[in-house]
What does this fold into?
Amino acid sequence: RINNVEAYSEFNGRYYPDYDTVITAIVPAGKELSHWIVNGDIVEEEKLIIKESLIIDKKVEVVSILKDDKKENLKVIITEVSSDGDNDYIILYNPYKQDINLLGYSITDDIDEPGKLILPQRQLKSGQSLKILGESNQETPDRGMIRAGFNLRDGETVGLYLKGELLDEVTIPDLRKGSVYTRDLLTMRFSEVRK
It folds into this structure.
């Protein structure tokens, strides 16, 4: 991200010495920033500020180097929500190479009530999802699913907590009938997808 402009490959632009050019890494799920390589040199700042001294032959080469997230930072994430009446659900996902124990996790559709649904203690294996069905969802729960005691509505914020600390949240927009709100695991942004 260059001054709030997202770039996923080579980026060309002008440098204005009177204005800060700030680069932050767009980090996909399961990864963290290791360091930057700027014109061949390692830089270990989280936010990279491009200064005039870094410009060589009217350009600067910047590469972000990512690594697997530390074991103590492992957390499940919200990857999809549906607020379609009798088809409400939330999908949680483990993007890491290690399994994650769900002990201490809770989820809610009301940020003022964080412990609305305490998740059962179980291991969420690497790459595995847990589907949380809304109270009125007609789907029969099977392995990998649990039922919440609430439904979802447009405008609500779904919050995921670990031991009372907010880890992840998503506000449900006004979705078209038959659409879901899905997270891109590379950009970590949500968008409406027709199912």
Summary: The mean pLDDT is 89. The radius of gyration is 20 Å. The chain has no helices and 17 strands. The domain at 74-194 is CATH 2.60.40.1260 (Immunoglobulin-like).
